[in-house]
């Protein structure tokens, strides 16, 4: 793994109060980078900051913010101004599964805003600075579902496909400015987000869920090496099969069948 301190002294982790983001924060602190912990649940962030201070002697900054609020990224910028931010992890995310027209439009628009527009805003805000000074790294958290259209998670998968495309393109654009960009596409991972997912019971899908610490570790190890990483052998095999063995129409049908059997909302088979 590259010495992450060479990017800068601080790392912004959006969505640091649980799951994959919390693991990014832990591992960044262990690597000597001070995390800026961003999420809504201030108590969680403060408890994590205290723990990281005890374990690694880092003085994390807690930024309790609803990233769906207008001007949230401006507020975050204001709170970190003057800090040497080297890494930004655009990880905060939500999702809603179920038949598309059964979901509220406002919920789907929140997915678009938090999982799609927020990475764009963070990339633009911090990317300008990174490119200008020729130093920095951006990690975008997509999903294994970015690889195919996914019925019953239609909007979420489409937004994650956008994130994957955005990050891979920025990886190329910013390489000549010495700025690293990595997209990480986790498969099913044991987090609160997965356990509390609305409209779907991932337990019904079988298969082992990945440890969020492994997801974060894989991403941090590949930062500066690759444009895109998929943690886990099985997730990589599924991705390869989707890309090279199945026509897209078959992949859509397969995902449709798999996801439909795990739906839990009204009007679904469950
Ligand atoms: N778990 C999986 O199987 C899986 C698979 C593929 C991709 N992913 C992606 O991985 C990322 C992390 O997900 P996770 O599974 O770790 O979920 P998680 O445990 O629910 O964590 C989500 C994080 O986002 C924050 N967040 C949510 N809404 C927010 C808002 N409005 N403002 C600020 N922060 C907000 C949450 O904090 P607060 O609630 O405190 O605000 C939390 O820290 C997401 O982008 C997700 O799409 C997850």
Structure description:
With 270 residues, this protein is α/β, with parallel strands linked by helices. It contains 9 helices and 7 strands. It has a 7-stranded parallel β-sheet with strand order 3-2-1-4-5-6-7, with helices on both faces. β5 (136-141), α5 and β6 (179-184) form a beta-alpha-beta unit. α1 (19-30) packs parallel to α2 (42-56), α1 packs across α7 (212-222) and α4 runs parallel beside α5. The radius of gyration is 18 Å and the shape is globular. The protein starts with 9 loop residues before the first strand and ends in a 10-residue tail after the last helix. The model has no long low-confidence stretch (mean pLDDT 95). It binds NADP nicotinamide-adenine-dinucleotide phosphate (NAP). The site of NADP nicotinamide-adenine-dinucleotide phosphate has 31 residues, from α1, α4 and α6. NADP nicotinamide-adenine-dinucleotide phosphate is lined by residues 15-21, 39-41, 44, 66-68, 91-95, 114-115, 141, 143, 186, 188-189, 191-194, 212. Keywords: Oxidoreductase. Belongs to the short-chain dehydrogenases/reductases (SDR) family. This is Short-chain dehydrogenase. GO terms for molecular function: oxidoreductase activity.
Which molecules are bound in this entry? NADP nicotinamide-adenine-dinucleotide phosphate
| Uncertain residue segments | none
The helical percent reads 40-55%
Task: Please give the CATH architecture.
Answer: 3-Layer(aba) Sandwich
The CATH homologous superfamily is termed: NAD(P)-binding Rossmann-like Domain
Summed up, the domain count is: 1
- Describe the sheet with the most strands: 7 strands, parallel
Query: Quick one: CATH class?
Result: Alpha Beta
Radius of gyration, taken over Cα atoms and rounded to an integer in Å = 18 Å
- The ordered H/E elements are EHEHEHEHEHEHHEHH
CATH domain fold name: Rossmann fold
Structural class: alpha/beta
Strand order of the largest sheet: 3-2-1-4-5-6-7
| Strand portion | 5-15%
The overall pLDDT average reads: 95
Count the DSSP helices: 9
- Dominant shape: globular
GO molecular function: oxidoreductase activity
Keywords: Oxidoreductase
Family: Belongs to the short-chain dehydrogenases/reductases (SDR) family.
Protein name: Short-chain dehydrogenase
């Amino acid at each position: 793994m590259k010495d992450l301190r060479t990017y800068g002294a601080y790392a912004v982790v959006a969505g640091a109060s649980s799951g994959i983001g919390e693991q990014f924060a832990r591992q960044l602190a262990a690597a000597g980078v001070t995390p800026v912990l961003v999420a809504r649940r201030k108590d969680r962030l403060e408890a994590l900051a205290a723990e990281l201070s005890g374990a690694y002697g880092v003085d994390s900054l807690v930024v309790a913010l609803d990233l769906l609020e207008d001007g949230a990224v401006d507020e975050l910028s204001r709170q970190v101004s003057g800090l040497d931010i080297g890494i930004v992890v655009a990880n905060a995310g939500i999702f809603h599964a179920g038949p598309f027209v059964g979901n509220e439009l406002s919920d789907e628009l929140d997915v678009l805003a938090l999982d799609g527009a927020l990475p764009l805003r963070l990339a633009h805000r911090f990317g300008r600075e990174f490119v200008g000074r020729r130093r920095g790294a951006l990690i975008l958290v997509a999903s294994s579902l970015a690889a195919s259209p996914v019925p019953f998670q239609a909007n979420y998968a489409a937004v994650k496909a956008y994130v994957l495309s955005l990050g891979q393109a920025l990886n190329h654009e910013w390489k000549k400015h010495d700025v690293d960009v990595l997209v990480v596409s986790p498969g099913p991972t044991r987090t609160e987000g997965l356990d509390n997912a609305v409209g779907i019971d991932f337990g019904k899908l079988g298969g082992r869920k990945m440890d969020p610490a492994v997801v974060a570790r894989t991403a941090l190890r590949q930062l500066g090496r690759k444009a895109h990483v998929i943690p886990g052998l099985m997730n990589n095999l599924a991705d390869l099969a989707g890309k090279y063995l199945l026509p897209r129409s078959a992949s859509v049908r397969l995902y449709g069948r798999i996801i439909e059997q795990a739906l839990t909302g009204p009007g679904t088979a469950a």
